[in-house]
Amino acid sequence: MSSDGKVLVVDDEPNIAEVVRLYLEHSNYEAIILPRGQEVLRTILNEKPSLVLLDIMLPDISGYELCEQIRKMDAPFHQTPIIFLTAKGESIDKLRGFNLGVDDYLVKPFDPNELIARIKAVLRRTIQVSTELSQPQNSSRKWLEIGNIVIDLEQYRVTVGGKRVELTPKEIELLYFLTSHPSRVFTREDLLGYVWNFDFTGGTRTVDAHVKNLRKKLGQHDMWYIQTLWGIGYSFEVVQHV
């Protein structure tokens, strides 16, 4: 029987790595175990895992630094989903992870069944995109152009003024959702439900971190902007020039 994909597990605690491996294999995933971070980038290139399960406190390199390195890899490897599995559970640690582009965050000790559920939730997006790309050419395309920004959700590609902007998959999904509903205000809870479809431990601060990243990466433009409505949420506004 073929597996549902490879999961790269980077954790220096043998007992935890073994438990994760058993649950992954029971759920029909192939587990690749690494106790250190030095081989992670090479393993991603060679094995092409569907997801990376990454500890933050590794003996040779910080998981934060590894996450940043993965997000700087050439396409399509820079979009490999990442879940932090770590004992560092403070809000500041979670926010730092989300700012670096991690897809989810689970604190040790953890329920292995919850871990599998979170892995499936993160991978559901990849499966959905693959299905959409296999549809006939006349199917509706998830593509938007507003002013100088073009968002292609099929290819997970964003360009501004004709230049590619490197965003994480979740940042692209959030941007696409907001631009699909110009001038409509969404609360942080709304965006968690519509875009994440999961009850993240990071809560509404996850949304704030992703919006902050979008603004930083997209820059300022006179045709559109992401507006903050203090105490309420966010909206995508198109500037009407007279």
Helical coverage, percent range: 25-40%
Largest sheet: 5 strands, parallel
Mean pLDDT: 84
Following the backbone from N to C, one meets helices and strands in this order, namely EHEHEHEHEHEEEEHEHHEE
How do the strands line up in the largest sheet?
2-1-3-4-5
Name the structural class. Answer: alpha/beta
Specify the overall morphology: globular
Number of helices: 8
Strand content: 15-25%
Distance between termini?
62 Å
Count of strand segments? 12
Rg estimate, integer Å = 18 Å
Unreliable spans are 128-139
Keywords: DNA-binding, Phosphoprotein, Transcription, Transcription regulation, Two-component regulatory system
Protein name: Response regulator transcription factor
Pfam family, one: Trans_reg_C
Organism: Paenibacillus alginolyticus
Main attributes?
globular; 5-stranded parallel beta sheet; 8 helices; two-component regulatory system; phosphoprotein; 242 residues; alpha/beta; single chain; OmpR/PhoB-type_DNA-bd; Sig_transdc_resp-reg_C-effctor
Structure description:
The structure is a single chain. With 242 residues, the chain is an alpha/beta fold. Helix content is 40%, strand content 21%. It contains 8 helices and 12 strands. The chain has a 5-stranded parallel β-sheet, with helices on both faces. A 4-stranded antiparallel β-sheet has the order 6-7-8-9, covered by helices on one side. A hairpin with a 3-residue loop joins strand 11 (224-229) and strand 12. The protein is globular and about 60 Å long. Residues 128-139 have low confidence and may be disordered. Keywords: DNA-binding, Phosphoprotein, Transcription, Transcription regulation, Two-component regulatory system. Residues 141-238 form the OmpR/PhoB-type domain. Residues 141-238 bind DNA. The modification 4-aspartylphosphate is found at residue 55.
